[in-house]
Amino acid sequence: MLNLGGGALCGIGIETIRLWGIKFGAIYARRLKRKHRAYGDTFYIDEVFVRINGIQHCLRRAVDQDGEVVDVYLQAKPDGAAAKRLFNRLLRFHSGESRKIVTDKLRSYGVAHRELIPETIHSTQQYENNRAKQSHEATRVRERGMRKFKSMKQAQRFLIAHAATSNLFNLERHLVPAEHYRNLRISAFNEWSRAVA
Questions:
Q1: What is the CATH number of the domain that holds 162?
Q2: In which region does residue 116 sit, left (phi positive, over 0), alpha (psi from -120 to 50) or beta (all else)?
Q3: Which residues pair with 22 in a beta bridge?
């Protein structure tokens, strides 16, 4: 039995839930992002490659020092122009520049850094970018469950909704006492209830 919005719903099919996600996911994500507290001042950026209809695409993700997903952006190519588009999104949507960005040694990040935010510290130290690399794992799990993404539009829509929801419930349980964690969890569910109302 699934309880959504105070009413008990039995026997909901997977397809129905998928269609609800398509219809309401972007709305909920926008509401959650509007209410989100500020991100940190260090962005860790990494990319993975995903196949959509047999064509390889570059999925770039930026997370802050607390592990919160700042942005996720699916692109056709991993070139310098694509990296600049990601950096422009970060500057436009997240109130100014970061103090430091951490990437791997992919040259397109260097191009975007030099042209758009040259005064920001840019680190490419080995293993320093592991925070961003590990954040891809939750997406990979969902991608396998969905039996791959079917289109760029569908993938981007899912990724934005997934990032906003995971940020809300990313409470880092291991860092806080049990009572404080319970309070954070109650607060997160209250925020979710307001977003879906």
A1: 3.30.420.10
A2: alpha
A3: none
pTM (two decimals): 0.73
Q: Is residue 90 part of a domain?
A: yes
Judge whether 74 lies within some domain.
yes
The 10s digit of each residue's pLDDT in 68-117 is 888 888 888 888 888 899 888 888 877 666 788 899 888 888 888 999 88
Side chain identity, residue 77: K
Nearest one of 158, 167, 196 to 19, comparing CA atoms: 158
Contacts 24+ apart (CB under 8 A), 184-187: none
In this structure, the number of other CB atoms found within 10 A of the CB of residue 168 comes to: 20
What's the token pair of residue 152? 């760029």
Number of domains in the chain: 1
